[in-house]
Amino acid sequence: MLHRYIITKTCSVGSLLLALFFAACTSQAQNAEQFAKETDEFLTKLTNTVKELPSISVVVVKGDRPVFMKSYGYADIANKVKAQNNTPYYIASSTKSFMGMAAAILDHQGKVKLNATLAESMPYIKFDTSVKADQVKLRDLLTHTSGIKNAYFGFRAAYSGNIDRKEMDWVLENKSGRRDEIGKYRYTNLGYNIYTHMTDKKLGMPWQDVLDNLLFKPLGMKRTTAYMSLAKKKGWKYAKPYFTLGNNGYEELYLMKKDNTMQSAGGVITTVEDMANWLIFNINEGKFKGKQLVPAKVVRMAHSPLVKRKSDRRPYGSQGYGLGWENATYQGKRVLQHDGGFAGFRTHVAFMPDTKVGITVLVNDGWIGGHVAHELSRFAFDWWMNEGKSSRNLEAYIKTATKKVKKYRKLIAKDKAKRAKRAWTLTEPLASYVGTYYNKSLGKVCVKLKNGKLEVSHGNMHAVAEPYPKENAIRLEMVPKRGWGLKFIVEQGKKASALSMDGDVFKRIQSK
Q1: 461-464 and 466-467: which strand pairing?
Q2: Do residues 371 and 505 share a domain?
Q3: Residue 110: inside a domain, yes or no?
Q4: End-to-end CA, the chain
Q5: Which of 25, 36, 96, 447 has its CA 20 to 30 A from that of 181?
Q6: Are residue 81 and residue 212 in the same domain, yes or no?
Q7: What's the predicted TM-score (pTM) here?
Q8: Any alpha helices (H) in 242-292, and if so which ranges?
Q9: CB–CB of 378/396 below 8 Å?
Q10: Strand ranges (DSSP E) for 26-93?
Q11: Total structural domains in the chain?
Q12: What is the C-alpha to C-alpha distance for residues 33 and 507, in angstroms, rounded to an integer?
């Protein structure tokens, strides 16, 4: 009788536990369904109201699966290509979390130790003594605490694409100096660029392939790459960059990334389908689809605040920085995040370890997109922390977003009208300025005469000249919506002998 009682009692407890398990699963499924419904309603209304948003792709993960994934609008307006969940977007600085994780793995494997010094790792570069290469560690490069300055190295990697190995070695050796003491946090792309310039040589493999082998392939990220050439070869219909606040409607921006500007601090394209896998991997400390792909301690190290800092950087501020991850808090809960921004793109990636909720928002707009991503992120975290209730008033936010768009439009129109009143200050015939100019730190600048206007090109960048107030100077937008002044050095009746762009002098080397 006692035996039968024990069996009956055990079966009852087992049945109860099984019932509770199914009840929990049912409840979570119902929560996910309700969350998806409310999120979709908000985004549908937002995209129907704020027409300045070309497209937006969103994924929210809870635990080990997506609970919402949807895309809205057009990835390519001219060709009427709608955004899909497998549409790749350029994610700019959100790349750093991938590169930081790869560095943590390489350290664990003993291939590239984070505690190695810069001098040990790059003995072929004779750094200036001010750099303190024998004291700067690779870890410092990736946590923005090396204190090194070198505007030329990062600019070539991210904008002009003039990245010849020998030239970059020269720039690193001759133009690196000290801005801050070692240990002081200052956000920059430079550390990541130096780190991968070293690993490319040390590992005999480009950093792009390192990411592919260590992360993209193991995580089944099918349309994620650091090669734009691969995306084109495979015919992926990736999102185009747009400026949407001008008076003439959507303006596609020309400065789309190429292989030579897909740099390790901002050089990945990906989709929300793939980012779901990335979030799951991070939320579950290296575990994905039942397999521990990377030891949990390695992932935790990459996530941990290796340096302390205080910042109110949107949307959650920051108390510290790990290997490509901002450490912050929201409503008392820890949040890890990293945004990305470039002309025509905004990315927001964030997750909350305690609640196991993560979100990625990809937008092909560089203005209102970031605001929308941050609001949506707060809504998602609130909702899952508070059992289906969020403190965010999305109806009110749509009104706020509409006001922001109007405000931006007025400011941009005002600036454009002001520039339109400027008169040309060039004293010589336009042909006098045409030619090729060279600066060893930056490379060549070419000035041509096209359709009666001066056109300036520098690596991947180009722009048509506009008037500028200073004598023999022009205004350029080499980077869309960012004005630069270029001043020619010219004597009356002669060809320009040089030009100065952003303080750097380029001497004429060839006349046309």
Answers
A1: unpaired
A2: no
A3: no
A4: 106
A5: 96
A6: yes
A7: 0.93
A8: 272-283
A9: no
A10: 55-62, 65-76, 81-82, 89-90
A11: 2
A12: 64
- Residue 440: helix, strand or coil by DSSP? coil
DSSP state of 493: T
Based on the fold, state whether residues 354 and 454 are members of the same structural domain.
no
Report yes or no on 152 lying in a domain. Answer: no
Distance CA 100, CA 23 (A): 40
Helix (H, G, I), strand (E, B) or coil at 320: strand
| Residues 373, 437 share a domain | no
Q: Which tokens belong to 243?
A: 């400026």
Nearest-angstrom CA–CA distance, 342 and 91: 8
CATH of the domain at 328: 3.40.710.10
* Residue carrying structure tokens 């430079």: 190
**Residue pointed to by tokens 């133009």:** 175
Contacts of 148 (CB under 8 A, 6+ apart): 131, 136, 141, 176, 177, 178, 179, 190, 191, 194
Tokens linked to 181: 């003491």
Same domain, 278 and 346: yes
Residue 237 tokens, joined: 């219909």
Measured distance CA(496)–CA(507) in Å, rounded: 9
CB 13 within 8 A of CB 48: no
Six-digit token pair at 53? Answer: 């948003």
Q: Which two tokens stand for residue 478?
A: 């080499």
Flag whether 36 is in a domain.
Answer: yes
CA separation for the pair 246, 87 (Å, rounded):
25
CB atoms within 10 A of CB 29: 11
**Residue 63: is it exposed, middle or buried by C-beta count within 10 angstroms (0-12/13-18/19+)?**
middle
- Reading the chain (512 residues) residue by residue, the pLDDT tens digits are 444 444 444 445 455 444 444 444 455 666 899 999 999 999 999 999 988 899 999 999 999 999 999 999 999 999 999 999 999 999 999 999 999 999 999 999 999 999 999 999 999 999 999 999 999 999 999 999 999 999 999 999 999 999 999 999 999 999 999 999 999 999 999 999 999 999 999 999 999 999 999 999 999 999 999 999 999 999 999 999 999 887 777 899 999 999 999 999 999 999 999 999 999 999 999 999 999 999 999 999 999 999 998 888 778 988 999 999 999 999 999 999 999 999 999 999 999 999 999 999 999 998 888 999 999 999 999 999 998 888 888 889 999 889 988 898 899 999 999 999 999 999 999 999 999 999 999 999 999 999 999 999 999 999 999 999 999 999 999 999 899 999 999 999 999 999 999 899 999 996 54
* Cα dihedral value 186, 190, 193, 194, nearest 10: -100
DSSP class per residue in 190-207? HHHHHHHHHHHHHHTS-H
- Which residues, in sequence order, are bridge partners of residue 504? 501
| Burial (CB count within 10 angstroms: exposed 0-12, middle 13-18, buried 19+), residue 403 | exposed
CA pseudo-torsion sign 385, 387, 390, 394: positive
Q: Which domain holds residue 33?
A: 2-100+207-410
